TrEMBL record:
<keyword id="KW-0963">Cytoplasm</keyword>
<keyword id="KW-0694">RNA-binding</keyword>
<keyword id="KW-0342">GTP-binding</keyword>
<protein>
    <recommendedName>
        <fullName>Signal recognition particle protein</fullName>
        <ecNumber>3.6.5.4</ecNumber>
    </recommendedName>
</protein>
<keyword id="KW-0378">Hydrolase</keyword>
<feature type="binding site">
    <location>
        <begin position="103"/>
        <end position="110"/>
    </location>
    <ligand>
        <name>GTP</name>
    </ligand>
</feature>
<dbReference type="GO" id="GO:0008312">
    <property type="term" value="F:7S RNA binding"/>
</dbReference>
<dbReference type="GO" id="GO:0003924">
    <property type="term" value="F:GTPase activity"/>
</dbReference>
<comment type="similarity">
    <text>Belongs to the GTP-binding SRP family. SRP54 subfamily.</text>
</comment>
<comment type="function">
    <text>Involved in targeting and insertion of nascent membrane proteins into the cytoplasmic membrane. Binds to the hydrophobic signal sequence of the ribosome-nascent chain (RNC) as it emerges from the ribosomes. The SRP-RNC complex is then targeted to the cytoplasmic membrane where it interacts with the SRP receptor FtsY.</text>
</comment>
<feature type="domain" description="SRP54-type proteins GTP-binding">
    <location>
        <begin position="267"/>
        <end position="280"/>
    </location>
</feature>
<keyword id="KW-0687">Ribonucleoprotein</keyword>
<keyword id="KW-0733">Signal recognition particle</keyword>
<dbReference type="GO" id="GO:0006614">
    <property type="term" value="P:SRP-dependent cotranslational protein targeting to membrane"/>
</dbReference>
<dbReference type="GO" id="GO:0005525">
    <property type="term" value="F:GTP binding"/>
</dbReference>
<keyword id="KW-0547">Nucleotide-binding</keyword>
<feature type="binding site">
    <location>
        <begin position="246"/>
        <end position="249"/>
    </location>
    <ligand>
        <name>GTP</name>
    </ligand>
</feature>
Amino acid sequence: LSDRLTETFRNLRTKGKLSAADVDGTVREIRRALLDADVALQVVKEFSARVRERALSDDVNKALNPAQQVVQIVNEELVGILGGEQRRLAFAKTPPTVIMLAGLQGSGKTTFAGKLARRLEKEGHTPILVAADLQRPNAVNQLQVVAERAGAAIYAPEPGNGVGDPVRVARDGVEHARRQQHDVVIIDTAGRLGVDAELMKQASDIRRVTQPDEVLFVIDAMIGQDAVNTAKAFQDGVDFTGVVLSKLDGDARGGAALSVASVTGRPIIFASTGEGLEDLEEFHPDRMASRILDLGDILTLIEQAQQAFDEEEARKVAEKFATDQFTLDDFLQQMQQLKKMGSMKKMLGMLPGMGQMKQQLDDFDEREIDRTEAIIRSMTPAERTNTKILNGSRRLRIARGSGMTVTDVNQLVTRFEQAAKMMKTVARGGTPNIPGMGAM
Ligand code: GDP
Ligand code: MG
């Protein structure tokens, strides 16, 4: 018995496994959807290779239908790349906690500085903003406005007093914060429109003299395909401990999140979602994964793939009916499918002239499937392929093996033979006359 069980399970496992063609088709759609969501090509390639590998491996969840399996794998991989668990801001053991911001000009650093200060105040901290962006004429002024709106303190260079050296302003700002007993220092820095060596040197100098607990790389979620190069340049030039994804409101599809997290391996900590001070959210990898899935319409695409899969199955089954190759193994597989995804109705619906049978299937009893399964599993491969060899002693052995009566076995065999005959007529284009279809 145990040999046969092993055999049966091996069969089930291969049946539950996705075919390479199923997986390739679905992965192709996922690639397209991710590219539509602005995920960088390189990341999309790596990602789909991994999903393909996993979907074809033995580690798929057999309780799910093929489409659900792919969705689950895609979702898990997305969440994994996005950092898995939500990562919170790290605070220093001895205050002040120093948080330095880095990123291109216009990425949203100054806006984020205000939002973060506001949030920290609400949580009972005493943050101070440090204006270390002396590049743009109006930058200090802008931070002053932001600080005022956020109700936060600010350290800015006095005009004519050491102006021009952002590294020194940053260092003095941290000293000032320590003296004034602010427990968090947020250093706003300058950006360029593009990555350049001078910007990187300045930022890495600021990092060196202030020894921040967090260096947050702020990146515009709308940046699209450029996200990878920008993130890499900042990682090489300054390095950072976490990412802030800004402008995630509006049309941003979040692809940048995946690109940045994937190429840098750094966690995304916050999402900035608007111009208002309150538009700040902690970043949740699982939510972003569903956002990316939704926005790429991947779920719809997968449903379509699944439908194609069902149609293909139905076509194969119809072919078997027509050519008399329909066996109890196929019957069992149908039963399992029926239980797993309720698709037999759908498949029967695809065959011509199956309307009335579909109706009967609506009253289908699931326990009946279990009994049928038990009986078929107690049969040898030869018995499943050819019911004609089922003599009395074989039927008795099967009944004992499955815990059913010989009458149960007889009924199943009769039903199967009737169904196969009937289906053959249908598949060849005739009109079926269905006797005793109650339990098929
Ligand atoms: P910085 O140069 O990196 O300091 O960028 P800013 O903070 O000055 O932001 C540049 C522009 O983007 C400003 O017009 C901001 O109002 C806008 N901005 C910043 N963050 C967001 C956001 O999350 N959503 C939207 N819609 N706009 C933002
Ligand atoms: Mg700024």
